[in-house]
Amino acid sequence: MTNPTPDGGDGREVVRPEVVEQVPAGAAGGPPAPADQGEQVTRPTKLIRIASMVRTMLDEVRRAPLDDAGRRRLREIHERSVNELEEVLSPELRQELSDVVLPFTSDAPSESELRLAQAQLVGWLEGLFHGIQATLFTQQTMAQQQMDQLQRRGAGGPPGIGGPEQGLSGYL
Questions:
Q1: How far is CA 67 from its chain centroid?
Q2: Can you tell me the distance from the alpha carbon of 42 to that of 11, in angstroms, rounded to the nearest whole number?
Q3: Which of 15, 87, 156, 166 could be 161's S-S partner, Cβ–Cβ 3.0 to 4.6 Å?
Q4: Residues 6+ apart with CB under 8 A from 142
Q5: Distance (Å, rounded) from C-alpha 127 to C-alpha 73?
Q6: Residue 109's CB: how many other CB atoms inside 10 A?
């Protein structure tokens, strides 16, 4: 597995849930470019597919009782899902996941153990998604604020963006 570049230049999709620091008004430059460290998801579509599968499995475990073979199979699927998730997570998120999701102690865990493990994994994934959404919202808000500041200062990009005083003719 190769390390992704900050811009995902190795062909993989990269979502960076870290929050970009806010630059004080009047500071030179802009927010720092995201570093190749911190909380990252390298393949968000794979993450979403696994999360959907885990949620469906949890719903199925709640609906019907499982025999011994079904419990063994669900344990294997659960462990494989966690391993697949670890492949798309940064080391920080991988560590968090391993701290939260405990390994099964028996070859055929009980239905309640399976339900708890699945619910725990679904909850962690939902928290991850909420964190990503909150970060994206924060970054979008910060970008909008920076654009507003630039427009108020008269450096809003191409002529005509900031209003009549920046070259927008009254005939348009």
A1: 35
A2: 10
A3: 156
A4: 20, 22, 31
A5: 26
A6: 19
Structural contact between residues 154 and 130, judged by C-beta atoms closer than 8 angstroms: no
Burial class for 16, CB neighbours closer than 10 Å (0-12, 13-18, 19+): buried
Q: In 10 A of CB 81, how many CB atoms?
A: 19
The pLDDT-based confidence of 160 (bands split at 50, 70, 90) is low
Residues in the chain: 172
Q: What are phi and psi of 41, to 5 degrees?
A: -120, 115
Residue 161: C-alpha distances to residues 36, 48, 165 (Å): 34, 38, 10
Burial pattern 49-62, b for ≥16 Cβ within 10 A else e, equals ebbeebbebbeebe
Gap between the Cα atoms of 156 and 145, Å rounded = 12
- Tens digit of each residue's pLDDT (9 = 90 or more) over 24-37: 333 334 443 344 45
